[in-house]
Structure formats: C-alpha cells, structure tokens
C-alpha cells in the first residue's frame, strides 16, 4: 500500500479508526421502560380495588390494611424505607367533625331522620324554632315580596351547570351561594329540597355528608361556628315544606373524633455520588371512599380509577427504577387521606423525610385509566398553574417519545369550573415552590360511585400513561440540573 498517494492513505487510516471513535462517544443511559408490564398493572389494580379492602376509607382499618399491602410490595421489589423510624410508614392524625345523633330536625309534626331525611351541609352548632316559609325556587321574583327575617326558608333546587362542570359540583356551589344570600336577607335556617337530579346525588353522595368533615388537627374544617344551618332535604320533602302555617325546629350538636392515617414512603437510591442526594418524587394516594349507602345494591366504593390506577402505576415505576436506577434517587410517596382534603400530602410537605429543596420534581398520578384511549391531561402545564416550564418540557418531550396522547389543556385552565388542578396531591408541593405536575385522564360518570370498578379500566391506556410518567421521571432523574421554578409562578387562589 506504500505506493498510494498520501491523502488516500490518511483517509483509509481515519476510516479504520471510525469504529473506535463511535464506541468512544457517550451513549444515552439505557432505561428500564420494558419493566413496565400490563400484566403487573392489572394484578395490582385488581388487588387494591377488590372488596377485600372495603374501599380504603381514610382513617379506617381498611386504609391501613391497604397501606400495609403496598408497603409489603415495596419491600418485595427491593426499595428502601424512608418513613419514620426506619419504616415505610409516616403516621399522622386526622380529625373528623360530624353532626351528632343527638341532633333533632322537625318540620311541623314530622321528625326527620338524619341521613335519610335531612343532611346538614356544613357542621354548625345551632338551635332554631321559627316559622317555615316556602319560596318556590327562590328566584328574585319569588323572593321580592316575602319577609325572610326570622324565618326558616325552604326552596326547591334548580339550575343547570356550565359546560365541563359536573352536576354535583354545580349543585354544591348553588347550595352555598343561595344559602348565603337567604341568610344575609334574614333567614335563620335554610332548607334546600332536591329536584330529581339532586335526589340522585343525595342517594349516592349523601352518606359523605353524614360522615362529616375531615382535616388535620387544627385545620379549617375542624372549626365549628354558631350560625344559621343550611339543611339538604330529599325530593319527597317538597310536600312537607309546602304545608302552610308550620314551624321548623332543629337542635344541631357536633362531635369530633381523631383517627390515624398514613403515608407510605420508599426510595431507590441514585447512582451518582452527588445527585443521589436529590430526588424525583413519584406521588399518588391509596385511599378512597370506603363503604357508603348502597347504590343499586353495591355499598363498596372501590375506587379503581380513583386511585388504584395511580397506585398500580407507582408500583410499576418502583420496579422500573429498582431494575435501573437513575443518577438521582427516586422517591415514592403514597399519600393517605387524599379524598378527605389532600391531608397526607399536606402533612408530608409539612414534615418531609427529605429536604423539600432536594426534590427535583413531583410527578403526581391521579386517575389514569379511563376516557378516550388517545387522550390525557397534564395539570400544571400552563400558567398560572405551571410552576416549572422545564419540568413541563420534560413531560411533553416524554409524551412525544412515548404514547403521543392528545393533551386536553382545558382542565388546567384557571377558568375551568371543576378546579381540577386544586384537587390532587401535587398541590401542596407546588404551593411550596417544588416543581410539580399531575398526570391524569380526568373525570368520568363513575367518579366517586360504586361503579368505579377495575373491569372498567382501560389497561392499555393505564400502561401508556405509566410509561409516559416513567420517561418523564427518568429524564428528570438523569438531567444535569434540577428543573427551575418559574420566576412569576403565582396561583390564582
């Protein structure tokens, strides 16, 4: 080969070195996406939403039993406990305030049975004995010539929700608004009679009010005021309140209880000697609504989508990160008592087991197995809810790389009537300027009903959302720096 021209000789020499040069280039870190299996998701979904756990109501033995089961899965997968005292658990107290059975509600000569015939919308210590006046649907015209001062005022609920607003949420908002207006006008009690639509809600969700309100000790829902009561009546009460010359009498007594709930906390340690002290936090919640008044013969609210899907996905993400850890550590938190007002996440952010400043990003999983197979939503993806553009970009890139969902951005808007952004466990973190987003496939007709069963979950979609969250978490776990907080982040409420 000595007779070749020098230039050709150099080219051949360079070509011979190409394989070595290619091998010398850094490769993207291999992930463990293949560890996420639909069969695992199905097994864990069906286990958690089985009648065995009786709906996993916060503050009950059923929630604790489900939490023990989750902790055992974490141990079997090989994760390290990061709760209190070397365990997977962080226990906390929740306080329940309810209307006592000693309370009395009487219309004319009819004594009402609490829970079946009457529900108090907000716990309030009150004693009322007043003339009862019925004002139809309480329109301005019907109220124009009625003296409400010193009266117990009854009206029939009416009205229609705006687009994208659930009827139940609209109904609750109407109850609060109209009650406040009538009390301001002088009513000493307000009685709201269900129409046919509100009656269906009374039968399905009324038992939640019967149970009372929950909060962390000293929280706003533990406070009870002496004020005019607002009382929700079933549709059959319309004939009762229409009778003339009646009095309404009530004595409302309130009682309070303390119950234990628990967060389950585990980690996979990162591989980088420095970055392993930072965390990508995978968040979800294990509780649901427990046993309530039966609907069509079923009294167990199993919460398959809400939120056994999020729990099954989080267990799958544990397996993936355990198989192939990222540079940063992966922290997994199952929050207790989410359904009672984000109590577990509120408690954890007030008593974190790692410094909040060390959390690179929170990826919250909330109801991820229903609705159209090609659609999903990312809460916290647009102002004013977006608190980290960089974290959102990781999630959007992961969606393009993975499932390619069409993202519904309406539910993340500040003017969306459901206020969905404010109703899951990413919120307490975001309020403390920890980068946080929420993966969800949004509400459906079976939300908080006994029909939220595992056989209604789209398992393929559940697997796709889980992989989307994994690719997002993997990117954050291996990024050179933590996602930055947006300088102008400020929630609208």
UniProtKB/TrEMBL annotation:
Coiled coil: none
Stored Pfam families: Peptidase_M28
GO biological process, one term: proteolysis
Gene Ontology molecular function: any one: metalloexopeptidase activity
UniProt keyword terms in alphabetical order: Signal
Domain Peptidase M28 residue range list: 263-467
Stretch forming the signal peptide: 1-24
Matching InterPro entries: M28_fam, PA_dom_sf, Peptidase_M28
Name of the protein in its database record: Peptidase M28
Organism phylogeny: Bacteria, Pseudomonadati, Bacteroidota, Cytophagia, Cytophagales
